[in-house]
From TrEMBL:
Its cofactor is heme. PANTHER family: CYTOCHROME P450. The lineage of its organism: Eukaryota, Viridiplantae, Streptophyta, Embryophyta, Tracheophyta. Signal peptide: none annotated. GO terms for molecular function: heme binding; iron ion binding; monooxygenase activity; oxidoreductase activity, acting on paired donors, with incorporation or reduction of molecular oxygen. This is Cytochrome P450.
Length: 510
């Protein structure tokens, strides 16, 4: 071989080697910037009973980190810059993804919670419009006031009999009744137990919600569904019960509308509003669309407010000073300083929008509850293509990226040394006026284009319920200083009942 050929070959070899080393260096660099591995899924399962605390401990140590699972990487972060990036700046790259959609499809269908892209955009637009109408605001406030009065009646009866009352259970039932009435214009009667069909729906709804969650842990769920066996056979029955009930409500409404269109147009529930819209533009959506979108609202608005009210009352039981301060504020905002309302109905009528709006301390106490006990403790997004987060960490296509409201609420670097203390005052300025925080730091309602659509609605409901209960009663846990923990679910649920003793602050005479 002549020397020039040898030189050319050597140069080629050297070039190849250089390119190979450069690629390795690049890959190495990428690998280095991938978030550190804090553990594997097995460790999460071993810490299942205290999962939120476990994830908080890891967040304190690592900030942004990875947990390895058999199917994909889960990236976790508590950095507000990363949160803003995935929820707003690069919104299009992070969504529900196919796995979540499949697991939730039987119950949620193609409702707003369960879709991305054009389907999501359309529903968001329609629903945002409905949620800001005066008609829905007035109607829902009326429903909340009636429901809070019914709840107060049950608590008053228990107080008179000296019996304990499980407030977690009462909140679950009353918020289901409230949101179903607002959504479909029908009272399920689960608080009073008066409606058999409604009770069957409520049971099927609870069971189907739990099974939807279980699917995330059961790799065989699709096979079971195909064979219609075990929990998936039950799931099919529950979904049929739900659908039969909901479609019957829709048919009945359409019939009502046919009878008296003028009268019907005044109805405030979401289903009636949608049916009126459909009359104007026939074919814009079918009954399946109505079923999906309204049922999604029921799911979104039920466990979240019920859970928050339960944690709120639990915290108040442990601090009578805060409880008294709220009772005082409610009294001043409604009946004036020197008089009490004569009966529950008279009092709830005083809970006008202005009165509710002036309760800054109550607003702060509910927000503080959500900071420490966010209804959605961890929220996950599927990464659609390789990306780099603002803190420099790489994420890859198919990774599941989690921001963590529960852990974020406990980070000293975000809230100061007293991060773990319940202190409503942190939300108030010197004049006692509520001052909101960045939604990328206080993430309980998510943020960006998919921020919770029911936030204002939820505060109104929670403030009406809380105002009625704390104005009328003083609450203590049934067993002195008893503590409750939480169950690892999609929402932050208590791990047992919240038994309380209620003593009347004033007469509930009717
Ligand atoms: C304390 C009460 C509540 C909290 C903490 C809360 C929190 C959240 C969170 C974290 C999300 C994002 C879920 C996700 O897509 O991953 C969300 C979405 C949503 N929430 Fe709420 N929520 C509450 C109450 C409500 C209520 C009462 C309603 C309706 C009546 C509601 C309607 C919705 C809807 C429709 C979405 C989906 C928005 C979209 O994807 O564009 N929420 N909420």
């Amino acid at each position: 071989m002549d020397s020039s050929l040898l030189a050319a070959l050597s140069s080629l070899l050297l070039l190849g080697l250089a390119l190979y080393l450069a690629r390795l260096a690049l890959l190495g660099k990428r690998r280095r910037s991938y978030p550190p591995v804090a553990g594997v899924m097995l460790q999460q399962l071993l810490n299942w009973g205290r999962l939120s605390e476990y994830m908080t401990e890891l967040s304190r140590r690592y900030g942004t980190f990875r947990m390895l699972t058999p199917t994909c990487n889960h990236v976790y972060t508590v950095d507000p810059a990363n949160v803003e990036y995935i929820l707003r700046t690069n919104f299009a790259n992070y969504g529900k993804g196919a796995m979540t959609h499949d697991a939730l499809e039987d119950l949620l269908g193609d409702g707003i919670f369960n879709v991305d892209g054009a389907k999501w955009r359309h529903q968001r637009k329609v629903a945002s419009f409905e949620f800001t109408t005066r008609a829905l605001r007035d109607y829902s406030s009326g429903v909340f006031r009636d429901m809070a009065a019914e709840l107060a009646g049950i608590v008053a009866a228990a107080a008179a009999a000296g019996e304990r009352v499980d407030m977690e259970n009462l909140f679950m039932r009353s918020t289901l009744d409230s949101i179903f009435t607002v959504g479909f214009g029908v009272n399920l009667g689960s608080l009073s137990g008066s409606n058999q069909e409604g009770a069957a729906f409520a049971r099927a709804f609870d069971d189907a919600s739990e099974q939807s969650l279980y699917r995330f842990l059961d790799p065989l769920w699709k096979a079971k569904r195909l064979l219609n066996v075990s929990s998936e056979a039950a799931m099919r029955r529950w979904v049929r019960t739900i659908d039969d009930f909901v479609y019957a409500v829709i048919d009945k409404k359409i019939e009502q509308m046919g009878r008296d269109e003028h009268e019907f147009a005044k109805k405030g529930d979401i289903l009636s509003r949608f049916l009126v819209e459909r009359e104007k533009d026939p074919g814009c959506f079918d009954n399946k669309y109505l079923r999906d979108i309204i049922l999604n609202f029921v799911i979104a608005g039920r466990d979240t407010t019920a859970g928050t009210l339960s944690w709120f009352l639990y915290v108040l039981c442990r601090d009578q000073r805060i409880q008294d301060k709220i009772a005082r504020e409610v009294r001043e905002a409604t009946t004036g300083d020197h008089q009490d309302a004569g009966c529950v109905q008279e009092f709830t009528a005083c809970l006008t929008e202005d009165a509710i709006g002036s309760m800054h301390y109550l607003h702060a106490a509910l927000t503080e509850t959500l900071r420490l006990y966010p209804a959605v403790p961890t929220d996950v997004k599927c990464c659609f293509s390789d990306d780099t987060l603002p803190d420099g960490h790489a994420v890859r296509r198919g990774d599941m990226v989690n921001y963590q409201p529960y852990a974020m609420g406990r980070m000293k670097f975000l809230w100061g040394d007293d991060a773990e203390e319940f202190r409503p005052e942190r939300w108030l300025d010197d004049d006692g006026v509520f001052v909101p925080e960045s939604p990328y730091k206080f993430t309980a309602f998510q943020a960006g284009p998919r921020i919770c659509l029911g936030k204002e609605f939820a505060y109104r409901q929670m403030k009406i319920f809380a105002a009625v209960l704390v104005y009328l009663f003083r609450f203590e846990t049934w067993e002195h200083d008893s503590r409750v923990g939480h169950r690892p679910m999609l929402t932050l649920k208590m791990d047992g009942p919240l038994y309380v003793r209620a003593s009347p602050r004033r007469s509930t005479g009717n």
